[in-house]
Amino acid sequence: MRQKIVAGNWKMNKTLDEALALASEVSNMVKDEVNTDVQVILAPSFISLTAVGKLIEGQKRLALAAQNCHHKTSGAYTGEVSVDMLKSIGVSFVIIGHSERRMYFNETNEQLAEKTNLLLQNNIRPIFCCGESLEQREKGIHIDFVKQQLTESLFHLDTNQLQKVVIAYEPIWAIGTGKTASTEQAQEMHEVIRKHIASKYGEAAAAEVSILYGGSCNPTNAPELFACKDVDGGLIGGASLKSRDFVSIVKSFS
Ligand code: PEP
Question: Is the pTM of the predicted complex or chain greater than 0.90?
Answer without folding.
Answer: yes
